């Protein structure tokens, strides 16, 4: 596709909106010479790209820390003799979803707040420990929301960016035909600038969408694995919290 753009531009020596330097096509000059609609499309795609890459970097750091600290938390938790010792030993883990869920459940106490439904969890609901299980479900839901936060933007960006670029493509082609009708000529010098604008918008949309889709799929798999770990830990933790004494043995 890149060769085709250069070929079309090189055959249009009279076109002022497409500049060439040797055999290289000056993309930036072509964008700056584009019409306001195509410039607006490129600006939107640039904004999408900046936000999506910021989310990718932040989410990568968050999930890496979560996995590392979860591993450390499970080692420390099951090595302690009781819940009080486990709380003290894991207090420094600020990014572990399991540690956060454990601390939130302990501090929530028997508060009978509204149940946060989580269809993937199947904790027992005996009347005597209903409040504990409700707190676990609520904490599971909160941790799942925190882990998956901002992933919806990556999905939206991956789905919409190609269509935004396609809109720029359609508009560039419309501009080309409009120029043909005004000048009464179908030469490459008339058609090439609009086609160049159109192809730039299409390429930009794909450049924005592809990393967003790849990152979304990767992060979604990481989040699901972490949620599965939390669900298993919640099932093991529920019986340990059914007593009011934090000194209950863990083994």
**Ends distance:** 64 Å
Mean pLDDT, as a whole number? 77
Give the fraction of residues assigned to helices.
Answer: over 70%
Low-pLDDT ranges: 1-24, 110-128, 244-251
Q: What oligomeric state best describes the polypeptide chains here?
A: single chain
Main β sheet profile? 2 strands, antiparallel
% residues in beta strands? under 5%
How many H/I helices? 8
User: How many distinct beta strands?
Assistant: 2
Shape, per Cα inertia axes: rod-shaped
Q: Give the strand line-up of the largest sheet.
A: 1-2
Order of helices and strands: HEEHHHHHHH
> Which class best fits the helix and strand makeup?
mainly alpha
Radius of gyration: 28 Å
Write the layout of secondary structure elements.
Elements: H1 2-10, E1 20-21, E2 24-25, H2 27-32, H3 36-79, H4 83-89, H5 97-108, H6 130-148, H7 151-183, H8 188-240
Antiparallel strand pairs: 1-2
Helix pairs in contact: 3-4, 3-7, 3-8, 5-6, 5-8, 6-8, 7-8
Detailed description of the structure:
The protein is an all-alpha fold and 251 residues long. 73% of the residues lie in helices and 2% in strands. The protein has helices at 2-10, 27-32, 36-79, 83-89, 97-108, 130-148, 151-183, 188-240, and strands at residues 20-21, 24-25. Strands 1-2 form a two-stranded antiparallel ribbon. Strand 1 and strand 2 (24-25) form a beta hairpin. The model is unreliable at 1-24, 110-128 and 244-251 (pLDDT under 50).
In short:
The relative contact order is 0.17. The protein is 73% helix and 2% strand.
